[in-house]
Amino acid sequence: MECKLAQEKIALFAYGELPDDQCHALEGHLSTCQRCQEELAAVQALQQAMSLAPAEEPSANMLAQARLRLEEALDSMPRMGWLERIQQSIFRGASMLGRAPVAASALLVVGLGCGGWAGFEYAENLPHPVAALPASVEGPGKIASISNIVREPGSENVAIHFNRLVPETAQGSLDDPKIRQLLLLGAESPADPGVTQNSVSLLADECLAGHECSEGTVRKALLVALCYDRDPDVRLKALNGLKPYVAEDMRVRDGVLEALLDDPDPTVRSRAIELLQPVQADSSVREVLHTVASEDDNPHIRTVSQEVLDRYPQIQ
């Protein structure tokens, strides 16, 4: 081994990264070369000094930039010919089989060569799909995000996949399933309170009018708005929309009772008492009314609850 090659491998040897077969050759050279021995001693001294210093993790920004530069360098590398690929595969396989039996080595080398040739021919015949670029980046809607970037090796062609934010408008009757589905989505929209209020109001009006509100999705949306929306106007609209179903749906009745007990807005609670009057004979309803009439902090709510109970004193 020459000194130039030995000095290139000394750093790998010091850090234990040099393959075993090359370590033996390097150790034989170091036993006879004073200059390379001094180079190894310098590398080991530097290694010891660096081990005393605290190791710092690279920043995420630095790692991202390094990955981008590596990808750019790999993309800019010229494409190897088929002969170079086969030679590289053979040499790599031969280096791993240095200590294998002769017959097995020969058989595996031949297999690697044949497999490399067949794989190259197959890869050359495969189509290379490249996503078609839009005719123009300018178009309706803003670009929301870049989803994928593919560069054709050895060329300046690049395919960029991106998503747009394109606003759309749907028009139709409130009984249209598509319009109804959009209203249900609007009722759960946390971004715009005005959209939520309009959606809940329209759904509640449809229920009051008896138009296609028998399914559970609309009632569930109104119950969610009644229990969790922060706007008292939205909760009041949802409560009004549930009025036709207080007597027939126990889930609606329980939601109204919960609003009577826990809602912070007195208008919503007063409206809940009115909605419960047709079912005040129910034991759970009367129990809640008794609790509110005797323990509630709001005197108006206590008075209204007691008035409802006094109308049917015979029901205990």
Condensed summary:
Helices cover 62% and strands 6% of the residues. By secondary structure, it is mainly alpha-helical.
Report on this model:
62% of the residues lie in helices and 6% in strands. The protein has 316 residues and is mainly alpha-helical. Strand 1 (142-151) and strand 2 (158-165) form a beta hairpin. It has a two-stranded antiparallel sheet. It has 3 domains: 1-48, no CATH class; 80-124; 177-310, Leucine-rich Repeat Variant. The radius of gyration is 39 Å and the shape is elongated.
Kindly state the percentage of residues in helix.
Answer: 55-70%
What is the SS-derived class?
mainly alpha
The top level CATH class name of the largest domain:
Mainly Alpha
Give, in spatial order, the strands making up the sheet with the most strands: 1-2
Characterize the main sheet. Answer: 2 strands, antiparallel
Give the count of structural domains: 3
Question: Which keywords apply here?
Answer:
Leucine-rich Repeat Variant; mainly alpha
What is this structure's SSE topology?
Blueprint: H1 3-14, H2 20-30, H3 34-52, H4 60-76, H5 82-96, H6 102-125, E1 142-151, E2 158-165, H7 177-187, H8 193-208, H9 216-228, H10 232-241, H11 250-262, H12 266-276, H13 283-295, H14 299-310
Helix pairs in contact: 1-2, 1-3, 5-6, 7-8, 8-9, 8-10, 9-10, 9-11, 10-12, 11-12, 12-14, 13-14
